[in-house]
Amino acid sequence: MYDFIKGTVDYVGPEYIVIENNGIGYQIMTPNPFVFTKKGNESVTVYIYHYVREDIAALYGFGSREEKALFTKLLNVTGIGPKGALAILASGQVEQVVQAIENEDEKFLVKFPGVGKKTARQMILDLKGKLEHIVPEFFPNLFNEGSQSFSTGSFSEELEEALLALKALGYSDKETQKAAKELSKENLSTEEYIKRALKTLLK
């Protein structure tokens, strides 16, 4: 139904963003809402997945078609719902997730909120060998040796917003406090705090 929505960012919160387009505000759930933080009236494009069930209708948004495609693949795995799929994508380490699936690395996959051994095994059974057509253009080094994980920048923003976003993804207070303790001396943007925190929690 929807492919993308292009407009200006009206609101950014721990769980969702609001994109204003022609006087209509679209509430969109995203893996890391603070990725879409923009200054002024700069337009952004959010690729949309329209999720509909008997008890819910929601929009999920991503910064690229590839992320949207991976989200869709994850939803097809028994035991993974939209919230779980968002938590996996929020790490900013999609490349590592796909590598874990290809390498049958259950220990890495169970580190995500809501992913137990059974679900991790199901992810591997359902998705192994089925992501290469999505990933190469997005992460060209994924299936080559020496692929690198993302790097972080050094910007000034608010750690509290990042902790709220982590809680919205399903991480416990104990886990978020662990991340906060390690990052409290850093001076980063909210987006980078989230990425760094997730990197720490997935170690």
From TrEMBL:
Signal sequence, renumbered to the chain: none
GO BP annotation list: DNA recombination; DNA repair
Keyword presence, Transmembrane: no
Keyword ATP-binding in annotation: no
Keyword vocabulary terms for this entry: Cytoplasm, DNA damage, DNA recombination, DNA repair, DNA-binding
GO molecular function: ATP binding; four-way junction DNA binding; four-way junction helicase activity
Annotated segments matching region Domain III: 156-203
Residue spans crossing the bilayer: none
Family: Belongs to the RuvA family.
Protein name: Holliday junction branch migration complex subunit RuvA
Source organism (scientific name): Peribacillus deserti
Chain's gene name: ruvA
